[in-house]
Amino acid sequence: MTVVVSARRGPLSATGAAALAVPVSAAAGDGPPMAGAGAAELAELGVDVPAVLAAEHADGKPGEVVSVAAPGRPGTRVLLVGVGDGTEPALRKAAAALARAAKSSESLATTLAQGRDPASVRAIAEALGFASYRFTRRSEDSPPALARIDLVLDSPARLRKQLDAAATVVDAVHLARDLANTPSKQKSPEWLAERAKAVGAAAGLSVTVRDEKAMAAEGFGGVLAVGQGSSRPPRFVEMTWSPRGAKRHVVLVGKGITFDSGGLSLKPPDSMPAMKTDMAGGAAVIATMTALRALGVTAKVTGLIPMAENLPGANATRPGDVIRHYGGLTSEVLNTDAEGRLVLADALAYAVARLEPDVVVDIATLTGAASLGLGKRHGALYTTSDDLRDALVGAATAAGERLWPMPLVADYRPALDSSIADLRNIGRRELNISGGSIVAALFLREFVADVPWAHLDVAGPARADADEDEVTKGATGFGVRTFCSWLAARG
Fold first, then answer.
1. pLDDT over 70, % of the chain
2. Which residues are catalytic?
3. Distance between CA atoms of 84 and 256, rounded to whole angstroms?
4. E-assigned strands of 70-128?
5. Is residue 456 within 8 Å of residue 406, measured between CB atoms?
């Protein structure tokens, strides 16, 4: 269940919410933390805010939440949430902590966004929505108690554009999380393709789905090779937003492996449960496409999602097999667990050959190597364009996500040389070259010709082991915020 975040005018105490929250700024120097808008109303309800903060040794750091009862209104909780120095990252952290602290209340009203600039109001609304996400398949499960959050503002109408944009992005992130968190027993390539068709149609997109026969006829050898070990055949989804007068064409490509066992190069058992989210890149593209109309994106945008289930069935691709990708390049498969690059290669080659894009960006949970140096909260960014690098990093920062530029090391390219095909799908160990994420990016670069291209390796930030700030345990929807920010800024 998604919490409804809305805006209203009027006194905080007049909202009738079960929980009331006011911001607390960090202390300046040796002074005490300072409560913000709404604190005077809490005094009328019998809450001595300075005394409560002193008793709890609160310092107003971002995300700190102090909870007390309101003597003047039985059954009402008061939440004092630290906002630090009030910067946008601090406000995002505070809003996320507040949403979690109020989850046992039926409703929440807060002045956290009052008096803030429009960008900060949007950031607060987004963080409240992101942190309130919940996914479950329990047989007996009631909705979370928190159903509504009211942002008490002086002029809600003036901020309608920012609030609407926040709601659009929150819905898109929740969709990406839902798709990635759905168990793979239900989430076959066909199921995921049908979901893409349904949400795409509702968002004003044209959607084409290629089945295994159509892919065979057109030469999508990488997608077919990865999916041939499963009894549930692959799909290739093409979603298009084509507004009148569009002057640019952006292609987004998302890896859609609905379950990754590793194929015949079988993964260890402990590595498999999270593999229902191996289509998180594809989910991010599907979800982003659904937001374009509401965000007023004027560029033409095409989303390509190659979908397959990588299983060790009787007909599975074997180590040593050679496959022919869309467009003709061949690759020698030395490890069937390096399957994501095989399906992405087909999509990238198709985009360049058929769609005449101005720019291509792919996103994939591609390599565990990417998270070894960057951790679980940064996505690795590879690109052939400095302008594209700067635009994506800027969009990610503005949206509250983290991308880190990585090098496409030319000296590593010989690691992909094969004696019998154009490429190997993993690096040659005898060359003693590590950098598995870099080598994977170099493989993909072979399929984009001279079109400006970026690759986001998000194996780390696409999944979370626990709730943290705006991220919830499980699939995170990483990339949706960045894409929405980038595409909206392009007009």
1. 98
2. 267, 341
3. 40
4. 77-84, 107-110
5. no
pLDDT reading at 8 higher than 90: no
> Which residues neighbour 162 within 8 Å (Cβ) at sequence distance 6 or greater?
118, 119, 121, 122, 125
- Distance from C-alpha of 371 to C-alpha of 369, rounded to nearest angstrom: 5
Q: How far is CA 424 from CA 206, 297, 324, 391, in A?
A: 35, 38, 12, 32
C-alpha 72/C-alpha 415 separation (Å) is 71
Sign of torsion over alpha carbons 354, 357, 360, 364: negative
Span 324-379, pLDDT tens digits: 999 999 999 999 999 999 999 999 999 999 999 999 999 999 999 999 989 999 99
What's this model's pTM, rounded to 2 decimal places? 0.96
Which has the closest alpha carbon to 327: 341, 347, 308?
A: 347
**Average pLDDT, stretch 278-282?**
98
Q: Which two tokens stand for residue 452?
A: 């400006």
Residue 156, φ and ψ in degrees, nearest 5: -55, -40
Contacts 24+ apart (CB under 8 A), 445-450: 445/382, 445/384, 445/408, 446/329, 446/345, 446/416, 446/422, 447/325, 447/327, 447/329, 447/344, 447/345, 447/348, 447/349, 447/352, 448/348, 448/352, 448/360, 448/384, 449/352
Q: 379 by DSSP, 3-state: which?
A: strand
Specify whether the CB–CB gap between 441 and 408 falls below 8 A. Answer: yes
**Whole-angstrom distance, CA of residue 462 vs CA of residue 395:** 17
Cβ atoms within 10 A of the Cβ of 66, count? Answer: 20
Angle at 84 between CA 79 and CA 88, to 5 degrees: 100
Instruction: Please give the Cα distance from 329 to 423 (Å, whole number).
Output: 8
- H helices, E strands: number in the chain: 14, 21
**Helix, strand, coil fractions of the chain, as percent rounded to 5:** 40, 20, 40
User: Any bridge partners for residue 361, and if so which?
Assistant: 252, 454
